Amino acid sequence: MTSKTRNWKPQTALVHGGTLRSQFGETAEAIYLTQGYVYESAQAAEARFKGEEPGFIYSRYANPTVDMFEKRMCALEGAEDARATASGMAAVTAALLCSVKAGDHIVAARALFGSCRWVVETLAPRYGIEATLVDGTDIANWEKAVRPNTKLFFLESPTNPTLEVVDIAAVASLANSIGARLVVDNVFATPLQQKPLQLGAHVVVYSATKHIDGQGRCLGGVILSDKKWIDENLHDYFRHTGPSLSPFNAWTLLKGLETLPVRVRQQTESAGKIADFLAEQPQIARVIYPGRADHPQAAIVKKQMSGGSTLICLDVKGGKQAAFALQNALDIVLISNNLGDAKSLITHPATTTHKNLSDEARAELGIGPGTLRLSVGLEDTDDLLEDIAQALKAAK
Ligand SMILES: *Cc1c(COP(=O)(O)O)cnc(C)c1O
Question: What domains appear along the chain, each with residue ranges and CATH number?
């Protein structure tokens, strides 16, 4: 097998990066649907287990198709090493839990994907790991929350669903000053529009289910960092707890990566136009979009992101009833809680993705009864604008 990774620009790395081509010279990446590997001799097995000879041992540890996906993600992210996981939540949980032990303290931005918040707020304390949730948009809140035993910072930016932006470089610098590590969930920005490792973060995690697949086919996740952190923290945790990605899903995600830049560019361009259109509608109380000058953290967006977003957060006047009426009147845009998909999707966070939060917690995050999250897909922009316009009219 041969594998080459050169100093390619992202679009090239996403088509060719990490490819392991077998002796058959296949064009597309091969799917190695195998759980294990055979050895030439007992001596060869011994040597491989000792690490004296390269090669695969067991697909819970590593698999050639999964390896291609991990290497291609490394080339895109500029990371030394990666581990692919069965879902985004498996990536987040592994990245957090392999870094801490009983008695340690985590500081996390409170605006987190619902399940991430559960891991930090509910699961970690069961094992003696305390967590403090802060309003992540002000660095002073992170500073105030630090304790002598703070080992880990965790944030998502832009956040789900209100697209708040956290200053990654500032939090990374605070983490470094106290010897803690910063884990960034970079799903909403995509690896193309924000580079947390370059901003000083230590670990980046993705739900590959979102833009990386981008076509609603499978779940997946990935954790990227420097080789030393992976060797010392993640390696054993990953091998022995088994959150590994299936080779078939790795192949699906490899194919997703090939078209990622084209899709994200088109979806972001459409989202920008739709956000501007929505901002002018009298039925819409508020539009939050990282590409607009009126975004609450526009200066930080400019500093750390290279594009707007494929997502828009909007508040419909008239609360839940008006938000539901708008959703129900849409024809092309589908009601679904996935995001980053080729199909445009809309969701009402208060009754779906964020229904488990208390009313106060939702209010803190800026999620009201009229809040909707729109994930802009690959349909023609004019068709989408027309669909939204007719739905607004019908929902009046
Ligand atoms: C979807 C999502 C996750 C979880 O990913 P799954 O693949 O659904 O497990 C984590 N973080 C963010 C920001 C997400 O959007």
Answer: 260-395 (3.90.1150.10)
